[in-house]
Write a structure and sequence with these properties.
Shape: elongated
Oligomer: single chain
Low-confidence stretches: none
Order of helices and strands: HH
Number of strands: 0
Strand content: under 5%
Largest sheet: none
C-alpha cells in the first residue's frame, strides 16, 4: 500500500534503513487498524467515521510502539 513512499529503490545508508524500518512499522499499524475497523465488535452505527478518526489519531502512536518493540526499547 505504501510502496514507493520514501523512494527507497536502491537507497543505502542509515537514513534509508531508518525509513525502511518506519515504513514497515506504519504498514503493520495500518494492518492492525484495518482489522480493528473490520471487526464485528466495532461500532456499527457511525462506525466508519468514528473508527477512521480513531485510526488517523492513533496510527503514528501504534507505529511508534511497534518500532520500539522491534528495536527492543519497550
Amino acid at each position: 500500500m505504501l510502496e514507493g513512499y520514501f523512494d527507497l529503490d536502491g537507497a543505502t545508508g542509515k537514513d534509508a534503513a531508518e525509513n525502511r524500518k518506519r515504513l514497515l512499522a506504519v504498514q503493520a499499524a495500518l494492518e492492525i487498524s484495518k482489522a480493528s475497523v473490520a471487526a464485528s465488535t466495532a461500532n456499527s452505527g457511525i462506525r466508519s467515521q468514528m473508527d477512521l478518526r480513531n485510526v488517523a489519531q492513533e496510527v503514528a502512536t501504534l507505529a511508534d510502539a511497534i518500532q520500539d518493540a522491534l528495536e527492543g526499547e519497550a
